[in-house]
Amino acid sequence: NILNIITALAYAPSEVANLEWAAGSAVISTLGKGAFIMLVIALCAAVWSGINGFMICGSKLLGSIAQYNMLPESMGKLNSNGVFKNSIIFIVIVSLIAPWFGREVISWIVDMSSLGASIAYFYVSLIAYR
Q1: pLDDT by residue (tens digit) across 67-78?
Q2: Does residue 79 sit within a domain?
């Protein structure tokens, strides 16, 4: 990607090891602070869109599973806007509690995400089959 190319052109491999964020430093030194601000905005937008996608997909997944009586019925209730409100509240609570367990636990959660995705895919397939 373009950030790796900019970093490779800006610094020697030995210099990169001493930098805290080589890509950010390379953008500042080669393209200026304006480009760095655009990079930060793009990274923030990527994080926010990931959080938004997780909330939407997670709530729909929990709501759909609940509608097939595999989770408590309250998770599958739609509000007036067609949103699984209780599923979103559950995801928010779990998401707000998780960081307090520390970096190691979050690392385990991230490592297990592929297993979670496989389980979710299994449940969606099971629901589609029914």
Answers
A1: 999 999 999 999
A2: yes
CA distances 7 to 32, 36, 41, 84, 114, Å, are 13, 13, 19, 44, 30
Distance CA 120, CA 5 (A): 37
Half-sphere exposure in the Cβ direction for 36 (13 Å, CA): 14
- pTM of this structure: 0.66
The predicted-structure confidence for 82-117, as pLDDT tens digits, reads as follows 999 999 999 999 888 878 888 888 788 777 777 777
* Tally of domains in the chain: 1
**How many Å apart are CA 130 and CA 26, to the nearest integer?**
53
Collapsing DSSP states into helix, strand and coil, what is residue 121? Answer: helix
pLDDT, one tens digit per residue, over 29-52 is 888 999 999 999 999 999 999 888
Residue 60 burial by CB count (10 A; 0-12/13-18/19+): exposed, middle or buried?
Answer: middle
Burial class (CB in 10 A: 0-12, 13-18, 19+), 53: exposed
**Domain membership flag for residue 68:** yes
